[in-house]
Amino acid sequence: MTDPAAQLLQAESDRAALARALGEKHTSLMHVIEEYRAGWKAATAGGWAKRDLARAGFTDPSRLPRARAASNAASATTDTSAAD
């Protein structure tokens, strides 16, 4: 028979690992978005019209999420965990 407390702790450990992995992916995503913004800026500075880039299938970076400040992200994590 398995210990119910051990099962609960393992489940919480697994959930924490998933949240950490998601956080790493989010950080990577935000970094790539900032690189995309820089590429968009370079393309428009090089003479490409925003409309032409959009027609070619590129997403206007103004429609992409912006990275939040670290303090906002920390408080959001705290608020979320408090709700559980």
Descriptive notes:
The protein has 84 residues and is mainly alpha-helical. 74% of the residues lie in helices and 0% in strands. It has one domain. It is rod-shaped and about 70 Å long. It starts with a helix and ends with a helix. The mean pLDDT is 86. Residues 67-84 have a biased composition (Low complexity). Residues 64-84 are annotated as: Disordered.
Give the C-alpha Rg: 20 Å
Question: What are the low-pLDDT stretches, counting only 5+ consecutive residues below 50?
Answer: none
Whole-number total of structural domains: 1
The class by helix and strand makeup works out as mainly alpha
How many beta strands in the DSSP annotation? 0
Largest sheet data:
none
β content, as a range?
under 5%
* Mean pLDDT across residues: 86
* Span between termini: 28 Å
H and E order = HHH
Highlighted features:
74% helix, 3 helices, 84 residues, mainly alpha
Topology (SSEs and partners):
Layout: H1 4-45, H2 50-55, H3 70-83
